[in-house]
Structures are given as C-alpha cells and as structure tokens.
Give the backbone structure.
Amino acid sequence: MPLVNFSNLDFDQIKTSIKDYLRANSNFTDYDYEGSNLSTIIDVLAYNTYITSYNANMVTNEVFIDGATLRENVVSLARNIGYVPKSRNASKSKISFTVDTTGTTAVAVTLRRGIVATSSNRFTNTSFVFSIPDDITVPVDSNNLALFNAIDVYEGTHLTQTFNVSSRTPNQKYILKNSGIDTDLITVSVRESPTSTITRVYKQFNSLYEVDDKSPVYFLQEINDERYELLFGDGIFGIKLQEPNVVEVGYITSGGETGNGINEFTFAGQLVDNNGAPITSGISLINADQTSFGGSAIESVESIKKNAPQIYASQNRAVTAADYEVLIPRIYPEAESVSAFGGEELSPPQYGKVFISVKPENGVHLSTTIKEDISRELRKFSVAGIVSEIVDLKYLYIETDSYVYYNENKAPSSSVVQSLVTSNIGAYARSTEMNKFGARFKYSKYQKIIDDTHQSITSNITTVQIRRDMEPALNAFAEYELCFGNRFFIKNHGHGTHGGQIGFNIKSSAFRVSGIADTLYLGDSPDKTLAKGRLFLFKLNSATEPVIVKQNVGMIDYLKGELKLNPIKFVSTSVNRGTPLIEVSAVPYSNDVIGLQDLYLQLDTNNVSVSAVSDQIASGDDISGSNYIVTSSYSNGSLVRGTPILTVKKPTAADTDTTLLADATDVDRTTRVTVTTGTAGQSQSTVYTTTSNTATNTSSTTSSTPSGGSSSSGGSSSSSPTSYSY
C-alpha cells in the first residue's frame, strides 16, 4: 500500500499515518507498535517528518512579504519593490557657546566634525555623546569672540569608513559595518586617488528622476543585521567609480529614542583656528537652546509590511489621496502621520485640489519653509491639473468622565482602583489607536480597558465630550468656522420628554468681546428641524442662571458638527496656553468618535475624570439595591467650561439693561426661560433672556477650506473681515 498524501502537521497524526501504512504491509502485521522497539523507530520517522514539514511551511511563509517574520526577509522582499525602510533617527538638540580668542591671531574658528558634547540622562543615568556630521566654521568678531549659536548636534558617535575602489575586486560592495546608523546624517565624498586633495560630495537619491551619467549620487539599501550598503552609479545613471578612487563615508550611530529629553551638556569637541592650531581655552559653558528630541527606533517589520506595498502601488506618482499619503513620508521623513483628501469631498466641492495635513514627529505645525519644500518636491510626482495644498494640523480632543464601580471585597482601596484606571487610560491615550489621522475612538474598547484594569471592577459609566480649541484674532473683526467632523447630540431641543428646555448643547470657555463689559460664553439654540440652529452670547448671574446678551451671532449645523460665527471682535480670553484660546465642546451623537479628514484625534488626559464608586450589590452590602448609587449615562453638568465667571448685577424679569448690548442703539427686553441643569438633569433654574428689538441679519461667509481645516483669507477692513476656519 503506498503512503497516501497527507497535510497533517501534528506529530501524533503523522505517527498514526505511519502506523497505518505499516499495518497495511503483510510483513508487519503481527508487530506490537506500542511495546516493541519499532515504536522508537516510528517516533524518529514522525519527528523527522514533523520537523521537515514545519521547515517547509516556514520557508514558504518567508517567501511572501505578508507571511515573512524575519526582518532580513521582509527587508529583502521590500527591496524588490523599491522600498527602503526608515532608519533609526538620532535625537537632535540645539546648543550655543562662545570661544574667546583673546591673545591669538585667529580670524575664524572651526568646530571639527565628530563629538561635540557629552551628557547624561538624569532618569536613566546613561551617558550620551552628541556629534556633528560636518565641520562648522564661524568668524571672530571685534570682541575676539567666536559665537556658535544654535548649532544642531545629534546623539551618537560620529564614525568614518574608507573604501578603496579596485578593479581587481569584481562586484565590489560598499557596506557600512555598524548598525544603528541614522541614514539622514550620512555624508559621502570621493577623491580621485589616495594622494588627491580634491573631493566631490555625493548626494543620496531614492529614484532615477533627474539622474544622468554626470550626477554624483549614491543609493542606499538595508542589508542584514540592520546595516546598510551604498550603491553607486554605473555610468548611465550616476557617475561610475573607477580605480584608484577613494570613498570616504561619515555617519552617526545613535541610540534612537533613548537620547531624548537631554538639556545639560559638557563640551568635548575639537576646535582649531584658521591656521589649524588647536584651541583648548576660552570656551564658555554650553547653553542648551532646545531639549533633545526626535530620536526614534528603526522602522518595524509591521510598518514595512504596511508601507512597502503602498509605495509600490503609487509607482512614484501622485494621483490619488493615498499616493500623497505614502509619498510624503519619503519626502519628509519626520512626518509621523499624514492625511490627504480630495477637494471633491468638501462642501462645496473644490475639484482639482488635494488637501494635505502632516503631523510632524516633534511639534504641532510645519513651518512655512518646510511646507514650501514639500510642495516643491510633490510637483515632481503630481500630474497636471491637480493642485496640492498643505493645511495646518488641527486637534480634535476627546474628554471622558468615568464612574468606575468596584467590589470593595476585592480591591485594596478606591484610590488604588482610580490610580490603575487612570494609568491604563494614559497608556491608551499614547497608543497608535489615537495618535494618527483617520483614528477612531472606540467607545466599547475604551470601556473594556477600564473594566479589565482590575478584578474588582464590575462596570463603568463613561460619558464622552469632544472639544476644539479656537484661536481668536484679538482686537480685530473676523469670522470663524469651527469644524468637529462628528454629529452633535442635542440634549435640550424642546421636544418630547425634555420638558420644553431649549439650547445650551455646546459649552465654551469664557471670553470678552468689544462693546460688552461682561464676561461672556457661547451658547446655541436648535430650530424646529433639529438639524441646524443659531448661536448666541450669554453671561452668568450664577452657575445656573444664564442671561442671553446677544442673539444670532452665528449658525450651528448639528449634523455636520460645524459652528460659524458672524463678524465679531474678541478682546480677551480666559484660557491662554501660549496663545489666547476659546475652548468649545459638545456631546457627540455617537460615542465612537472619528478624526475626519485633517482632524488629528487625541484623548486629552488632562480632562479625563475617573471616580471610583462602591458597588454595594456586588460586595453583598446591599443585595436589594435600595442604596445603590445611580450614575447618569448622559452628560450634562455645567453650562460652561471651566470655573463659571459671574456678573455682579443680577437682572430681574422686569429689568431693561442696555449696557449688555454690542450695539447701544438696540433696546432689549428681558424674558424668563426655564432650563434644566445638574449632573442628573434634575434641578431647574431661571434663564434671563434679553431679546433685541432690532434683528441681527449679518450673514456668515462659508470658508473654502476643508472641513476641519485652518486657514485665513480676506482683508482686515470692517467691510471684509478676516475669515478663520478651524
């Protein structure tokens, strides 16, 4: 009986198949397969088959980029489709120091490439060195001082490696022998011969565009053990190396992210004057202009598997939005996340345009210079008729309020439960689930993270709010558009079971405007369709007594999650984090929040509240549930953000207060409206509403920037106020 084909990879199944084969042979009919020595032979055969099958399966997996697990194989497969993984990035800092050359004839001072400073991380007690890849020369001023101001230094050791080109070595390879290299800091120069003093600097290229037989270029590819190989031209694409050329390569090997956060340095560099004489005295202490940042590890296997096919699919051309998203990290390696979308997705649509938003690894916004550089490089890949526009990054913040129920019999204390939950939420906020374009806050997963924090936790009630920060142009009339990219929930719409309460679905921080002496807030009131509404300004007589000061200051679209303010002049804000800000928040219609288009989703841990509540039913203290603490699942709370700022005067229903108006010619009368406030929505208060006799018909201008975008346009005159879109 022939051994039939089988696909079993389990050892016992393989062993059973061998026994069945032997039993079918008449020569082995009477054997005891379990008790005889033949059992050992069968085990050996089964093990051999098992190991061979396993190896064959693994080898087959390593042939395809989706199934490969070894970095060398993934890199090799990515290389076949023209993808070079990102290298390790050295942490970068800016330092300044002076050199006093009094008593010398120096007219210039040169800081030699290599180690410049040493330092240590106060948290890890690890020593670091910071280097520069090229010499830096500065002149000596009239005070005999050489000023090295804000020079860039990089964490790591600077090394050089020399190759002698030889025609007697066929297929000569130029392999850098060290790992951990930051490829952005590689310098390559070529001399005609060992005795020549003339060098030609070669530049790194990653494509054949604009490369001819006279181009001094080299290409780079990763090989085994995270090392790199340099590839030079063949005389058709790039200059071909010839004997006796000498290639000198300089590079910095770095520790990556371990060098971040350092701001204390000790000078350890080499200084020479214009005559080449060393300078060892007159060197000041080093001032750190910038704490080291930007260090990162080499690109992971998972990232290579994701990005390599996308780069190949783009074919070095920018047509679709996805093409831009994969090309920009190659043009600007410091891009942490990229979002691109076509103008046809906007309302109204803008055909022929693509909008791009980039989150740098360090910082929030791209400088104008970097934007121009990226746009210039993109033109090499884009097709005619498509205009790319780089817009600033916009944050959409998520704020949560969690009441965590726990069994007292299984927890050390409420503070321990609260601390553990807060720690897990912080880890989730820092994860890649959130910090990227196209992210989605997954409500059920967030609740599960809380529930799984400790065995004592029985459940949690979590409410969610979304927030945008608007930066007003103080003391200037301007229009504003604030986009959330998520539908708003209308909790006070005046219909159904809400008892007739209307408005106050959004909240804002305090601010002041021209023409009104009181501190104001932004409020809303939906129309009958519950799709749109109007914005108004109000002040507070008490935490639960708002007074509407000015009606019709803008429009709100609850379905799109957009606010548009008519021309208004802000004079101050209660929130200032380096710049004046007005915080505006709302409750999302869905607790699953998305980062639409150019909105960058972040969980704001500074506005995450965690409260531990004893579950008396689970602990057995109150089986009947008579004293069970109930928490509302609906966010309501205060009418405003932050500590309420109250006005001095409290009007009555009969009061007429013309000082509250932006236009002193308007005469308003005060009416009474009842609204519901409080965490559980159970307390009622009186709202004093001043209604203008003169209607305000100022229309808002629809911005042409994308939803969630940020730009300014228009003039500054009163007839054409500036328009800001956030």
